Amino acid sequence: MTRLNLIAVDLSITQLLNKILPHSILVDHFFSFLSLRGASILVWIIVIAIILILEERKYPGIQKQDIKFIFVFLLAFTVSYITSDAILKNVFQRPRPASTNFNQFQPISANCPKDNSFPSTHATTAFAAATVLTYFDKKRRWFYYLVAILISLSRIYLGCHFFFDVLTGGIIGWIISKLIISQLRRI
């Protein structure tokens, strides 16, 4: 597949997702909240706080597993962020949908940065977080990956990313977390 064909497929999938997703003021606010002006780690902090509060009732006090979780979570999140935002975006330098000649991509809000698009740092960190959370709490894995998917979709919905930006970001975040977890098992 040539580069132009790949871009055309990416554009088509992005447009399809934008048409399928419902558009209303309520959905605008929901997806804007999930993106939080680039600070989606706050969404994960809220999720983690709720889970820790629920778990605290069962197991009072800080457990060794809690410290291990916080360390792995912060490591995976940080490595994913740096890999996506500081390294890969500078290598690929792909413009965001709103800054291209495709008039149908008007950002819904001011949440879209002006830097490069590929890969989506939101998707990278969201899937890194979901993977780590799933490793430590398998019974809620569907919930963690649902949050990651919604954060990733928010970037397409808001007009900040193309589909392949988000898909690739999610895969990168998942791989980074899996690598960190595999190293953790050796310790």
From TrEMBL:
It holds the Pfam family PAP2. The chain crosses the membrane at residues 30-54, 66-84, 142-158, 164-181. SMART domains: acidPPc. This is Phosphatidic acid phosphatase type 2/haloperoxidase domain-containing protein. It comes from the Bacteria. It comes from Candidatus Roizmanbacteria bacterium RIFCSPHIGHO2_01_FULL_39_12c. InterPro entries: PAP2/HPO, PAP2/HPO_sf. Keywords: Membrane, Transmembrane, Transmembrane helix. Residues 69-181 form the Phosphatidic acid phosphatase type 2/haloperoxidase domain.
